[in-house]
Design goal:
This is Cytochrome c domain-containing protein. It contains 7 helices and no strands. By secondary structure, the chain is mostly helical. It is globular and about 35 Å long.
């Protein structure tokens, strides 16, 4: 069990998890290009690994607390909490929608919060990030 938990910490940084997020967030591109989704989406360093930023830590914690869930479900659970991990005035889900970094307070949407919330709701709101296995 300890070995599994130790591996889980590094497993979250594996490319398949980043690819899942790219797909789930409907980001253009299906490759691991930093222009599609940089490592700093969840990590402090642009090369990934430790340390994790506040959003990445929220994701790790949620994944550890829900080992029976897929990474897609864990991502959704984090967004569903409607947190502002980096405390920049924009919730994580709005930053995902605006393609900014939810764990970096220097990366935030240019649109006003209320306007972004309106656009987000019109685009389908949180439901657009629901895992495919839950949409059935």
């Amino acid at each position: 069990m300890l070995m599994g938990l130790a591996l889980l910490g590094t497993a979250l940084a594996l490319p398949q998890y980043r690819l899942q997020a790219i797909k789930q967030f409907h980001y253009k591109g299906s490759t691991l290009k930093k222009s599609t989704m940089p490592c700093t989406f969840c990590h402090v360093k642009d090369t990934g690994g430790d340390p994790w930023n506040a959003f990445g830590e929220n994701l790790r914690k949620t994944f550890h607390e829900n080992l029976d869930k897929s990474i897609a479900e864990a991502i959704y659970l984090v967004l569903e909490k409607d947190l502002d991990s980096d405390e920049d005035g924009y919730s994580d889900v709005l930053e995902v929608y605006a393609h900014t970094l939810p764990g970096n307070p220097e990366s935030k949407p240019t649109a006003h919060v209320e306007a972004l919330k309106t656009d987000f709701a019109a685009a389908g709101g949180l439901k657009q990030y629901q895992p495919a296995e839950k949409k059935k």
